[in-house]
Amino acid sequence: MLNINKYRSNNTNEKTFNTHNIEFSMKIRQPIITIAGHVDHGKTSLADAIRNTNVQSTEAGGITQKISFTKVSMEHLKRQCPLIEANNIKLEIPGFLLIDTPGHAAFSHLRKRGGSLADIAILLVDIHEGIKPQTQEVITLLKINKVPFVVALNKLDNISGWRKKSEDLKKNIEHQSINTKTHFQEKLFTLIGSLHHYGFNAKLYYEITDFTKELALIPCSAKTKEGIPELILTIAGISEKFLKKNLAIGETAKGIILEIKKEKDMQYVESILYDGKLNLKDEIIIASFEEPIVTKIRVLEEIINLSSQFKSKEEVFASTGIRMQIVTKENILPGMPFAIFQDNLKEIKKEFKKDIEDELKTDEEGLIVKADSLGSLEALVTLLKQSNIKIIKLGIGNINKKDLISAETNLKEDPINAVILGFNVEEDEEIRNINKKVKIIKNEVIYKIIEEFKKYQEYKENEIKKQKLIELTSISRLKILHQYIFRNSNPAVFGVFIEAGKIKSGITLIDESGKKIAKVKDIQENNKKINEAEIGKEVAISLPGIIFDRVLFNSNYLYSDLTEQQFKKFKENKELLSQEEIQTLQKIAEIKRKNNPLWGV
After folding, report:
1. Around Cβ 197, how many Cβ atoms within 10 Å?
2. How far apart, in whole angstroms, are the C-alpha atoms of residue 411 and residue 414?
3. For 88-148, where are the E strands, in sequence order?
4. Which entry of 38, 41, 104, 109 is annotated as an active-site residue?
5. Which helix (H) or strand (E) holds 447?
6. Containing H/E element for 386?
7. For residue 96, which of 122, 124, 135, 61 has the smallest C-alpha distance?
8. pTM recorded for the entire structure
9. Catalytic (active site) residue 109
């Protein structure tokens, strides 16, 4: 479904892009197409099917480890999609720049000023599994960034009884057996219902009458390549009809840093040039959280069509994947934008600052957030703010000692926010094995980070409430250990087993009849004085002013003495109490009501 106001063509007379003799005078660039979706749903396999390559088999565990990009020429697309020439479709776009993202990166790395780096996205969904957590994440970010997309329903060949009876996908769907077609339609309608929940009117691509209002579903198999021609045709058609204005090449080179590799004194930077032209002699300026970095280019290389290899170039044109060897030794962060430097430091600095700060505003209070790139950070911050979660500090890179120190300052004033959230990052070696006072939540799925934080937030809020209750007094049920009488009087010292709650110095104890016995003077465990002890422990307590064999000889239990106000407060918050504490509370009320039937009512 397209945002027609954003992507309507202005019908200007763009020149046809001659792919045999590429010149900068040509106005139309390749649309940048990102394939995104849940891990293991077959993103790299789908990219392989479009490129006619076999990258997926070389990935560790079959999982994409980093963002990769491929230039796919129009000649190649026509070979992969005979439907283009068979239907005499004229296309001015010179091909695709195809982006394959790891599951954890989802859509979030691919950002630029004003929204998405991708012109159009392919949301890949396993037709058997439907919408999974990372799929939800991608859909949310696509909606936020107003990126047009289609849905590729992968693993069509795994539907029970499926047979490829025609090269025409529509006819093949229609010619399946009744049982197979029923199975297919069940999967299809389930997914259509799920997408409707997100506000999309989804239909099979050949049923769509208005691509600006309906979301195209293209069933396919990356394995058998069934449906791949139809997918290419749909993407090419949408790009040609609705995105040409957005594909006009500007005069200024602009790009995004994807990955940085360091070797000795050199930095190799893999990037996407999404606008303009870049020359080897150009200086570039790269955004940073602090001062922008100005650097010269020593080596400029461009990705070769249908390859992961690079070739040295004097000049490159958008849109394309590039690798630069740059002079600077300064720390460059992935996801940061860059542009040509032309004595316009003040202007670009202001633009970069606005670019970063618009999306990454912090609050006066909140938790700490770290991510592996600027795009990831923006995605995480966006979804956290949608959930009304406040952020006091954020950054790119692993969780470090400074982050821990910053989070620890929240322990006293704001313990619920003494938390560090990490999206696709790890902890630095120096803090990995130390005993941390703050909570660290890491994951490669943003929604899981948010869910885990909300659970922790609820747990911590309950802990704080419970602590405030306990400060009133303690709920205690103590079994007297008559075999351990250490002193009979002045004070009486004897052993008890804590069956429920906890015991603290200074609390008043009552016996099973409700008679006040004494205040706990001291508590000892293993001959060591302690201030309190919890359920399950055997300790010795000292009670002044009583003689044990006169007062407690026939007693088996002692309970903490509660006022009616304290009892009611505990009762109002009994969801914070353990089952043993609730039972003890009921027993104390029962004891008190022997003498006063209306006590605590």
Report:
1. 10
2. 6
3. 95-100, 111-112, 115-116, 120-126
4. 104
5. helix 446-472
6. helix 374-386
7. 122
8. 0.68
9. no
